[in-house]
Each structure stands twice: as C-alpha cells, then as structure tokens.
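**User:** Once you have settled down, spend some time on the protein underneath, comparing sequence with structure tokens, and judge whether sequence predicts the tokens.
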Amino acid sequence: MKQQPRFKYKLNRLSLCILTALTTQATFLQHANAEESSVKDKEIERISVIGSHIKVNHDNGELPVTTISAEDIENSGAVSGAELLAEIPQQGEVSFNSSRSVGGVNDARGDVSSFNLRGLGTGNTLVLLNGRRLVLHPGTQSENFVPVTTANANTLPVRGLKRVEVLRDGAAAIYGSDAVAGVVNYALKDNYEGSEFNLNYGNEQGTERDVINLTGATGFFLNEEKTHVSMSAGYYNRNIIMASEKPYAKSSDLRENNRFPDEVIVTGTDDDGNPIYSNSDLHNLNSSTPWGEFRTKTLGTFHLQPDTLSGCENSDSRGNPTTALDVEGVCVDRGSQPSSDGYDRNSERSLSSGVERANFYGMLTHELTDDTELYGEALYYFAKADRIREQTSNLTSQRFTISADAYYNPFGEEVSLRKYRPVDTGPRNIEVTDTSYRLLTGLRGYYSNWDWDSGLLYSKANTQDKANRIHTQRFQEAINSTDQATAYDVFNGADINNNNVGDPTRNDQSVIDNFMIDVVRESETELALFDFKVSREDIFELPAGEVGFAAGIEYRYESFFDVRSDELNTTEQFLDTVGGSKDVDQFASVVLGSSPTPDAAGSRNVFSAYGEFAIPLLNDLPLVESLNMQLAARYERFSDVGDILKPKVALSWVMNDYVQLRAAYSEGFKAPGLPQVVAVDISRVNSRNDPLVDSRYGVLEIRSGSDSLRPEESESRSWGVVIQPTDNLTFTADWWYLDQTDTVGLIHSQTQLLYDAMLHYENPTGNGNPLVTRGGEDNEVIAVKNDYINLQDRESSGVDLGVTYDLETSFGKFKFKTNAAKLTKFYQLADDVTAQVIAAQQSSDQGLVDALKYKGKEVTITGSGDLIGQNGRPEWRVVSSLDWRKDAWGAGLRYKYISGFEDTSLDYTVDEENLKYQVKSFSKVDAYVNYRLPGSLIENAKITFGVRNLAGKKPPIADETFGYNSSVHSSLGRYFYMNINKKF
C-alpha cells in the first residue's frame, strides 16, 4: 500500500499507544522516552486529542478524558445512542427519553435521547462529530421550566463509531458555548478498509419488545490510492411496549403497591385492624374521567357514577326529581368526582415507543498533493417513533355550556361541562418523524511545520409530530346537537364494572369522526459553520521543550422554528358558543386538552476566535519529570445576546514514571437557547395544589422568552492524580467544582400560587400575586403568567474515580475497568420570591403557615436549596467491566450501579415525623460470550450471545406515572440478544 503523507496523521506505534491509553477510564501517563527505541526509526506523526486543538506527538494528560472504544461499544451490547450514553457514569438524568410520562404535544417525544454530563441540565454539554458541532434536535422540552434543546444521541450509527471521547471538564475556552459540563466527541471510522456486516436481534423476556439492528460498513482506496471512501449504515427496529405489560407500570394508582414499605403506603387501620392504604401522594388517578363533572343552577356541582356506590340521589331536598337520567347502572352524585373514582391513564399508555430508525454515514478523502487533502462527510438520519396515550380531557379554560335542548341533556336546564374525558373516541396515536442530514467539505494540510484545516459545514434537523385529537369547538357542537344522528352523549356514564378504566358506552363512530382532527407540530433547526484553524507543535522553544500553538476562527449560523397546526397556534381559539362570555378565551385552543402555543422562529450569527498554547515549564528535575501547561482563551460574539471572552489554564505535573498530578481552571458560558429568547406565550398545564381554595387541579401557565436574558456564566476548577504502579495497572481520581451564575429558569408555578396565598393572607382585600389571574365561581386560577429570567447561582462539585487493570495469563487476557462518579454538592440559591415563601412556611405566625398548606399539609418547595440526592440526582454512579479473551473465545461481565435518591413528591409520617421517600439504589449485571467461527466460508465471522439485566431486576419504585423514574432508570427487564458479525 502507498505510504500515506504526514498530514494524514497515520497511526504509528506512538499514536496507537496514546489511543490505547485513551480507551481506559482516564487519560494515562505517556512518556516519549519509554517509546524511543520503538519509534526512533519511524516518522513521528501528529495526532489530535480531545480537549486541545494542538496536534502534537505526545499526550501530556492535563485534562480528564473518558473514552469508549469500538471494542467497548461491542462488548456493552449497546445498539442505540441512548444505550451507549448509559455506559458513562458522568451522564446525569436523561429527560429526553421514549418513556417520559408527560409526553404531550409540547414535548420532544420522538426518537431522541439527551446529553447531560454532571447532571447540570440538558444544554450544558457540547456534542461534536469528528471535532465539529452537531446540529441540535428540533424538539424542545421543559427543564427548570424553560425549553431546552439537545443534540440527539440516536442520530449516529453506533456500530460505525471508532470511539466516543468524553472530556469531563469545562471547555468553553476551547470549543465555545455550551461546553460548561464537558464535551462529548463522536469519532467515526474514517480510515476503514474492508467490509463487514452485523446482525443483532434481541428480546425482553415476558414482553413484546423485539429489537432488530442491521449495520454494515465498507472502506476502500481508489484512484491509485489517492482517494479513500468509507461508509457505514444501520437499520434499527424496536416494538412498542404498553404500560400494561409491566406489573409495576400498569396502574397509576400506587397506593397499594407492595413494593413500597408499609410505612409509606399504610396510613392507619380500620375498626377491624385492617390496613388503610390511603397515602394521597400515591394516588395518581386523574380527576378528569369519562363519568364527567358538571354544574347546573339546580344541582350545583355534580358527577355521574355507578349506582352501586353511595351518594346516589334522584331528587332534591324538596323531593323534586333532579334528572330524567335513564342509563342503566348510572346515577347522579352531588359534588366533585371523589379521588377514588379517578381515571387510570396507564391503562391506555405505551411505556416505551416503537421506533424504526435508519442511519447513514460516509466520508471521502482525496490527496491533492503530498501536503494537501480534500475531505468530505455526509450523514443522514431518519426515524419514525410511535406511541400511544389516553385521550385528553378539557382544560379549565375549555369549560363550556350544554344547552337545555341538547338531544342528550336530561336535566331540562343549561349544564356547565367542567371535566370530561371522551375515552370512547379512542386513544391518541402519536407518530413522530425525525430526519436530519449533515454535509461537510474541507481542506487540510501541512505547510512549513504548520498543520492547517478549514471546513464548511451545513446541517439541518426536522421533526414532525402528528396525533389524532379532538376539535373542542366541534365537540361542543356535537354535544349541543338537537339531532340524534349528529349528537354526542356525555351523560351515558362509563364502565360500571370498572370505575377507573375505559368507557364501553360508545357513541356512534360517525358522530366521533366529525370532531376528530390531526394536529401537527413541525420543528426544525439549522446549523451552518465555517472554520479555519492552524496548529504547530514547535512555534518556539523553551529550556523545558517546544511550545505548541493553535489558533482559529469560526463563524456559525443557527436557526430554529416551531410551527403548529392552526388549531393549536392561536390562529383558532375556543369560544363557548352557548353560555358564558362571547369573547374568545385567549388561553383556550380548539384542541381539547391543549393550551395554545404560538409559532416561534429565530436565528443568530456567532463569530468566534480562539488561541491555545501548550507550554513545557520544567523537565528532568527531581520529582519533576515534566511540568506542562495549557493556556487557552476564546472570544464569541452573538448577534442577539452580546459577546464574551473566557480563559482556561491547565497543568500537568509528571513526578515520575508512577505519579502524575493535574489541575485546571476555566471559565465557561452558555448562551440562552433560541427557544428561550424567541418564545411567546407558551402554554403549559400542570396539576398544582392551590392553598387559597384548598384544591388541586390543572393550572395553566403562560411562559415567554426574553431577548434581555444574559448568558449563563461559570467558573470551574478540577484537580486530579494518576497513579500507575505498574505498566498494566492505573488508578485515577479527579475532583471538580463548578459555580454557575445567571442560570436561566422560571419561578415554579407552585411557588407562585403559594406566594399568591401569602399575599392574600397579609392583605385580604388586595390583589395577591400580580402574575396569578383568578376567576369563576370557585376563584380558581385562570393562568399564571411567567417570563424566563436569570435566576441565582448554582454550585456543584464531585469526584471521578477510575481503575484499569490488564492481565495476561496462560488462561487468556483479562481486562478490568471501573469508572465511578460521585456528586458531592448541588446547591441552587433561591430567588427572591421563593425565599419569601420558604420564610413564610417557617414563620412563627401559625395563621400564615396554615394559609400556605394544602389539605392541612405543607406544600414542598422544589428547585432550590441543597438538591443533591433529590429527584434524579443520585450521589453515586458506577460502571465496571471485566472482559476475557483467549484464542477464538471471549466473554465478559458489566456491572452498573446507581445510588438511591429522595423523591420529594412522596411524603409519609412515622411516629409523627414527616419524611421523604428514598428511592432505592439499583444495580444490574450484563453478560456476554462470543466465539469467532472457524472455516474458510465463515472466516472472520463472530457470534455473540448476551444477556442484559441478567437477574431481571425491576427499576426501583418511585412516585412517578409508570412507577419508576424514567430519566434515571430503564424499564428493560431480562433481555437476551444475539449478534452475528462477518468481516469480508
């Protein structure tokens, strides 16, 4: 084969050693003198290491890096980006996931998985592909009550990866905005020769979860070996899983779930000594049901129910008939629907989406001259995800009047429909199509000891979310119809034999079809980027060695749009055409159960420039084999939120062949995301406790962005030690600390309601919280108006531990790795409003304290204070592996551990002491065995059998919709898979 020119950074023995070191859980000590004899007759090539733009012939290891090699990926059994991220213990909770229980039209609910290093929040991790930014996924999700975006981990074919590099340190001075918690770089195979085909099939025991994954790759030279082409492609298919397939997820009512300790679920005993399971926190049935809740002047508020329940009445206090209701087994009961009769939404929900996905990646390099190369990349991704959810009920803002002469109205007077879930229309079938592509071309080369590289990149991602929904205006028309052929009956009750599930009393399908519509949300992001960068390892020389230098400029354009159907984007708004005000309700869309969200669009231009030095300070002294420093700074100017300059300094002190110390200080920043800047009147509805009326109901919150938001800034410090007592044993420990200021968020709407109650207590004749609008006969909240703001500081810290041990014996080669991450601090300072509410809850004024309670219980304030070990922030995450190889055989075990954490939504009392429920720790073991088959026809074929979650453990139970926290744990039980790989 033709000798490759120097600029191609050929993998000689030295660079190969460095990459091998990177495949451990941290960057290891590398010493050029230890390799001198093996490379003295070879040309030393320049390589690029994550965390630096300087291409050098050695790795000083100033920064902590975790690398997952292609072999690690294969041994893990991961077949998707989401599964691969689970191999990184520094990855925090994954809020973008296919099992997210909220999953409304305002969620990113397609084939998407988010990045969240250190648990600092989505958007604080910069994601690169071959060293350049990935376009952001178009879907947004609410985190800290603001819309956040993420690169999509499922975009790339897992089997086509050469390695994944994780820089566990702030790197804004090197790479720019968003690199607050660190950087994840995907390196795809660019020098592959040959071809391979891979088939993976898996099934979860006891479920319909089948997974098929087909991948292939090829690489070859042509044009007299001046041109190289490499390509990889993959196809992935996973069946949908219903919540009913998992015992712990089949019901949202967790009050009698015996996986909780008795002290959590049992609140007392009855007269016969039998336990009473009535912890209201675990009662997750929804108060909007197909039985309905109504109001008339005669009856007041009432609901329907089976006549086998107590409370039925057919006459008022004077003995007059209250209704002409003539439905077998159904009666009228005064008052609101009791919580025990709520609707079990899990009966119709999918637990995990069905996904069909295809990925393609190609790379071309062409040698123009001995020192110049043309290169190009192309990436395409397509996915279709399907999920099922229960039909929605009307919001508070969508209440309407039923006329006295409506065909099915048996009450002889106008009826106000307060709550109703039209289950007989069928569930919502949601289909989300995600596509993205990336095109890159560039030139790179080598000129007079300078490496240079310039590229032009364009990438776009698109998401289309479609679901069958109910048109509220047409729904009201059908209910009010005087013609039986077009009338819809809301007074026929539901399932008298199963009060909490389903509605067999179906209306005519032709009537239902008249008010069913498809609602579409289309979102798109765009990234265009041009850069030029230079690097030299020996710009000048100091007594301790040569000084490396890199510099570059970058211009990028980012855009975003989010467009919804007219029924949802405020073009059409709901109007109660029979009763009430004739004015359009600004907070009501014509999509039942969804608030209006205006279309949004925005773009920005960003110019940046950076410089970096690699400076050898000392060498060959007692206890100082080498002392090297990295200095870097980056300037970025945003067209919408101003400009910023941030520095970084890092030190590596190699004491001897066994010990290395390292430390770094850096400043970072995260520009407000475009959705946070351009969003206007985003409507969200969440169940909240309203202490002013002592009721819990869905509260509408109107959120808006602001162009006055400041970038989030940060300071980070890290320090660590690498100990290598022998060539095959390495210990690493790295401590880190991060202080973030001006974090973008919202004051929790629950806190806003508490603040409103506090102001009403202090001034009963006043207006209360100006951001809270109330109205109606019940004085319930109509809306909470909130704008995104810069909040107070957040401090976090932790430690990463790693051990790697390689052992060669007559029984084979053994490789042991462990990587552990411990979160030691996560503290969010409270904003002014939250601080006032907390002070009021702790006041000596008992009247004030009682005014802030709901049903006699204190309402928990979340989102501020010491948050470590709370709600998806476990202190410990550990990933360990043991792999064995001998001849054609291989086998391995992987162990994963996540410590427990507090579930702040679940209170219980023991001996009059109020406690918070602790979600238990979780650990699981995966195993595999493989064999490379003999024979000429099947030469280079390898077959692998594996089991993930070997013991079939269930995720630890929590007070969540599906009975577990899907952002931390997986619902995957015992999963068997087979993998066949054939190289050609």
Q: What stands out?
A: The CA atoms of residues 128 and 759 lie 49 Å apart. The two ends are 18 Å apart (CA to CA).
